[in-house]
Amino acid sequence: MSRPYPFNEADRLELDPTYQKLRRDEPVSRVVLPYGGEAWLAVRHADVRTVLSDPRFSRAAVVGRDMPRVRPEVEGNTNSIMNMDPPDHTRPRKLLAGAFTTRRVEALRPRAAELTTELLAGMRAAGPGADLVEHVSMPLPLMIICELLGVPAADRPIFRSASDAIMSMSTMTPQERRAAHADLEAYMAGMLAQRRITPADDLLGALGSAQDDGNPPSEGELIDLGIGILVAGHETTMSQIGNMTYTLLARSDRWAALRQGGHEAVVRGVEELLRYTPILAAGGFPRVATEDVELAGVTVRAGETVVVSLAAANREPELFDDAETLLLDRAANHHVTFGYGAHHCPGAMLARMELQEVLAGLLREFPDLRLAVAPEDVQWRTGARVRGPRALPLAWGPEKRR
To answer: Is there a contact between 151 and 191 (Cβ–Cβ < 8 Å)?
Structure first.
C-alpha cells in the first residue's frame, strides 16, 4: 500500500506518528508524492545513511526527470552542487570546504556574538511581547551570511525576499520561484563581475579566485554556489533559532535546566535540539537508484526514487536512548540533521556556532525569558520547505497577574 506523502502538513514541531510505526514495521515503504508519482521512503538511521552515501543512489539522475517530488517544478539545474554526484561534485565541494573551515568559522564567532548582543538589545528596547523572529532570528543569520559573501547592507532585503520565494513549496507559483532565482543569478553575476574589477577579501571573492589543479570554477558554478550559500546559510538557521527557543520555553523546566549549565551545556543542548527538532516539512532531497539495491529487505529497482526522513532517523531507538525525549545533556549524538556522506552540509559548523551564540546570549541577557503567548497560540509558517514560527512573542521580567 502506498501512502500519500508528506503525511500531513507541518503542525508546529510535532513529528507525525506514522514515522514511528514505519520505523518499527516498514522501514522502507512506498509513498506517493504530490507530483511525479510513487517513491520509496527510508526512515531508519542506518538506511538513511546508506541512501545518502551509497553512490548507487544518485542526485544527478534527478535532473530533467518527471520524478516524485513535493513541488511542481522538474529539477533542471545542472550547475547546482546539490544535483551533482562525485566526481563532478568533488570540485565545488572542495571549494566550499575551504570556505567553511573550523578556523574561518571560529574567527567569525566574536562578530556573531557582537551582532547577537546588538540585536538582543534591540529586542529589549522593544519591550516584553517583542517578536524573536523580527528582532533576532531573521536578521542575524542574514547579516552573517551577507557579511561573509560581501553583500552590501542595502541589498540584504532583496536577498531575503528572493530566498523566501526559492524556499516556498506552495505559497508561491513556480513562475514566481523561477523569477526569484533568475533575479539572484543576475545579482550574483554582477557581484562576481565587480570582484574581478575590485578584488575583495570576502567569501565570494575567495571562491572566485579559487583554483583546483589550475582549473578555476565556471561562472555558472560560482553563481549557484553563491545562491546556495545564501539560501541554506540563513533560511534554516533562522527557522532553527525560533524552533529551539520555542521548544525550550514551551516547558519552563527546559529553559531552567539549560540556564544552570555553562558553555558545554549550551553546546550539548544545541546538538540535542538539532536532533530532536524536525526542521524539514517533508523528506530530504530525493535520489534515484542507478541499479537494483537491497535496502532493509526490499529491492529498490534501478530508476526508482528514494526519499529519506532525517527527522525519523534522528528518533531511532536503537541508536538514541529514550529517542522520543529531549535530553539536553545527551552525550553521544550522531544525528543526521545536516545530512551524511558527500552532501553533508558544508555550513554545519557555521550554523552550530550561530545557534550556540544566540542561545548563550538569550540565557545571559534574559534568564527569566518566557513565551508571551500560550504555546498553542504561536503562529507557524506554512507552505515552506522548513518549519519555523511565523512570529515568536517573548516576555521577561515580573509576570503580570491576570
So the answer is: yes
